[in-house]
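Anyone opening a protein record will find just a pair of labelled lines. The record below illustrates this layout.
***
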Amino acid sequence: MLRTSLACVCALAPWVTMAQVDLPMVDVGDPGNPGDPSTGHGSVGAGYRIGRFEVRNADYAAFLNSVARFGDPHGLWSPTNSPMYGISRSGSGTVGSPFLYSVDVGYAGLPVTYVNYYDAARFANWLHNGQPDTGYATNGTTETGSYTFSGATGIPGRNPDATWVLPSQEEWYKAAFYDPTASATSNFWTYATRSDAIPNSRRPNTNDANSANFFRNATGDPAGDFLNDGYGVTGEATLRAGTNYLTEVGGYEGGFSYFGTFDQGGNVWEWTETTTNLSGSIYGIRYGGSWALGAVFMSAVNLDFDDPLDRHDDVGFRLVLIPEPGVGPWVLCGAGLAAIWVGRRRWRGSGRG
């Protein structure tokens, strides 16, 4: 990466303890709700918590500094020079010269991209295990926990004692579109902004409750007003080389779901835990659309299939936290690992570049 960087830590001696990751979460209640009559999805039998935001570069860099200092056998870090990736690496990955991962200036609050299905599952394992800081991706850090890896890519499914996990297809769908107050006939919205109307494509804002970061070039709309003129960030219908099209998580302050999640429509596609077999090949299911695509890809009727090994400039993830039996929904969990935010105010990360 050629951009100026801010180190996540000041020193990288092997014994240094890295900063802990705090993911703001929201409670998803009404267990046993019926599914969306239009798709059959969104019914979940138990309560759970889901990330208010997508996992950020600052969060993922802390993960890398904890499990990939002395080598990176699973390629958790991406060597891409894409302007949609905001983590740089220095060092050689040895005990004498460990890898140091740093967040590029202005990228800390953006969603991490270029992460595949297995990268996201290993991040979940790391949180499940208490964010251990060993410098290695091994059993007890990334290879066991909520998921048990068999080799580089084998995951038989969510373990019975799992805590931090990728959302299942149904968990993701419910958090995005379900609203028990939405309608007398259907308690699901078409878009994750609590709306059946197509959102506006525009820059992050505080006053438009139905807006998101995606592509919409509306016929008849005045050009140059940054409203439905193309890509949300630039207000143009053509791509600019070298331009970052991602927006900071939570930047569309009025565009949250019923449960208080942000950016489940647009910005980046999000991996779910659910996979499917298509013609003998396993694919991961993703939802939410992205900065690069139109409104239909954000809608409840659309999902995407992709090779779980693939990494892209418009794909990220958020996590679910499964509460332990007997733990109430508004308790701070995991010794500072999660902040449960009851109100619907925006969270401003402290690690902005």
